[in-house]
Structures are given as C-alpha cells and as structure tokens.
Amino acid sequence: MKTAALILAAGRGTRALGSRPKQYVTIGGVPVLAHAVRAFLAHPDIALVAVAIAREDEALYRAAVAGLASSKLLGPIGGGTTRQASVGNGLRALSAHLPDLVLIHDAARPFVTRDIIDRVLGALAQSPGAIAALPLADTLKVADPGGRIAETVDRTGLWRAQTPQGFRFGDILTAHERARAAGLEEMTDDAAVAEWAGLPVALVLGSAANAKLTLPEDFAMAELAAGGPDVRVGQGFDVHRLVAGDHVWLCGVRIAHTQALEGHSDADVALHALTDAMLGAIGAGDIGQHFPDSDPRWKGAASSIFVAEALRQVRARGGTIGNVDITLLCEAPRIAPHRDAMRRRLAELLELEEARVSVKATTTEGLGFAGRREGIAAVATAVVVLR
C-alpha cells in the first residue's frame, strides 16, 4: 500500500529558545525538523514525505532540508492558523498523489524511530486509525481553586498520545473535511478528529524518547541524547596602521594616545578581529564581505555596528556566544588601565556576562611593525553554540 507521511512544522512555538520556531532550532547541529524528516525518508514503507510549514518560514525550511535530497520529499505545503487547519491543508495537497495510508507527525518530535513507525503501520492493517502513545505512569491530581489537591485520578487505562498518528487516507481526509464544515477547528490531535467522526483508533506503544520538545530543558536533554551541542570556534585577525592623531578606539573604548589608527571606519582593530571570529564560527564570510571599505556608509562608522551585525547573524542561525577572547599586540598605549572598561563594553555589545569576555595584551619585544610602533594588531577567538 502507498503510504505518505505528513510532518507538521507550521507552528510558531518560540518559548523553547527565543525567536526562532523550535522546529528550526538545531539538536546536535541538525535542525529538529530535519531529524524528523530523515526518519520518514529512511523508512522503506514510506513512499512520500510532505511538510506543512508557515509560508514566512520557507527560507528556514529550505535550509533545514538542504541535505535531505530525496525523490520521496515533496515541496512544502502552506500550513494553517491551527494544527488542525495545517493537517487539512496537507491532506488535501497529498490527495493528488493518491496515498492509501497517511502518518501524521509533529516536527517537534525529532527522535521518532523505525520501530514506532512499524507499530503504527502494523496496527492499520486491522484498524482505520492507530497512534503511538505511552501508558500514564505518573499519579494525577485534581486541584481545587486554592491550588490544593481535591482528588486523585485513577490512571488505569490512561495514555499519553504521541505521533505519528496513522490513518487510512480517505477516512481521515473525510473526517477532517466534516469537522471543518461543522466549524470544529481546534481539536488538538488527529485521533480526536477521528474519534469525533466515529473512526476506531488503536493504541500502540510509543517511546519516552519520542517526546515533544517544548521547553528549554527539553532541548537540553535532547542535546545530550544527540551527543551534545554543536560548538563552533572562529578566529579573527586584523591590523591597522598608526598615524598622527590623539586617540585610538580599542574594544569599543576611546583611549587618549599620541597616535591614531588609520582605517575606513573608526579602525577599532579589536572589534574588527572579533567580528571576523564570530562570522568565521558560523561560516558567514568575513568583515570585508559585509562591510567593504569601498562603501561610503561605513566611512568613520563605529565598529560596534559590525559586531552587532555578526551577533544578529549568529542568532539568526540559532546560535549563542559562549565566550570571546581578544589579544592585542602593541607597544603602546598600555592596555592594563583600560582592560576592565574594555571587558564591560564587549560584554554590553555581546549581551554576555563579563566572565565570558577576556581581553589580553602583549608586546612583540620591539620586533616587527608592532614593535616599531607602526601599527596595532588583534587576534580574537569566539565560541558559538548552535542549537
């Protein structure tokens, strides 16, 4: 029989880790959605895989599935304003491919296994519907209005529903269309739609590992299951010539000096190296690509602008800055009196605690351009954690 998988990724859930929808956050360096899609693409009994997405997320979707080229994977389907509406849109789109069965799965359950898929498909040989679920192990309490226990609920026969939820395609499409026509559009899963339509639904054993990722602690546990977070290290180096002047900018701090640093912007050599380190950690090129010195917009610009853009790009990829380390190579000015101010400014720019920011300085013992006081160089390292 021809089986399609419909993966739901149109939700806007962002409470897990900030502004990025959770299905595009990475676990072990791989987007949550990609984990789920890969499981269904790899199953020999799945003929088609389609993903329902929010239209505004198409670029995120394309990036998430970029490494999953397969003739099984159809183009994305526009989701709806509710989970039920997204499923309805997906089923209608899939109907053109004439599947016999459909498995509907939440993208936020990245660790679905072949065994779970097998059990759901096996149950569909005997029942119009089947879902993965777990028998309830926790004791349930009912609270009174004051937050005290009013009673204990008998957990016998209670199960926690998971996905995938599988159905004979024609049955579940008809059930969804009937529910929509009746104005019922807020049912929380497809088994509820099937129950309302009078379709028997079997329960098969799911897995605790097939949990839905919702809160930050869920992602922390998932990272451990996937082998830990995706940690990237970037390095940056920059140098600017010293010319006549009365101050230099270093690490975003203005320091009185007998010379100035020459550059198209404010020539803050430390922030330029830091920008390159951050961009390098995420494979996003270098400062010259994003802020070319041929562009008049950056004439005399504060280098904090460059750092802010690099930080934006890190966060757009689901990343956070772990720590940064900057070493300045110069004979003068003396850095020690300004080190604390530099660390405070860097922490402010990166929205980090100061403990994650290091600023060091060294001389070159009179050797080279720095030793001859012809210029100042900076080396920066940035650690980025992608989620």
- Sequence of secondary-structure elements: EEEHEHEHEHEEEEHHEHEEEEHHHEHEHE
Could you please say which CATH topology of the largest domain applies here?
Answer: Spore Coat Polysaccharide Biosynthesis Protein SpsA, Chain A
Query: Helical stretch count?
Result: 12
Oligomer: single chain
Helix content: 25-40%
Largest sheet entry: 7 strands, mixed
**Overall pLDDT:** 94
Question: Could you explain the architecture of this structure?
Answer:
With 387 residues, the chain is of the alpha/beta class. The protein folds into two domains: 3-225, Spore Coat Polysaccharide Biosynthesis Protein SpsA, Chain A; 230-386, 2-C-methyl-D-erythritol 2,4-cyclodiphosphate synthase (60s Ribosomal Protein L30, Chain: A). The protein has helices at 32-41, 58-64, 83-94, 114-123, 169-181, 190-196, 216-225, 269-281, 287-290, 304-316, 339-350, 368-371; strands at residues 3-9, 26-27, 30-31, 48-53, 77-78, 101-106, 129-135, 140-143, 149-153, 159-168, 201-205, 230-244, 247-250, 253-256, 259-261, 319-329, 357-362, 375-386. The strands form five sheets. Strands 5-4-1-6-10-7-11 form a seven-stranded mixed β-sheet, sandwiched between helices.
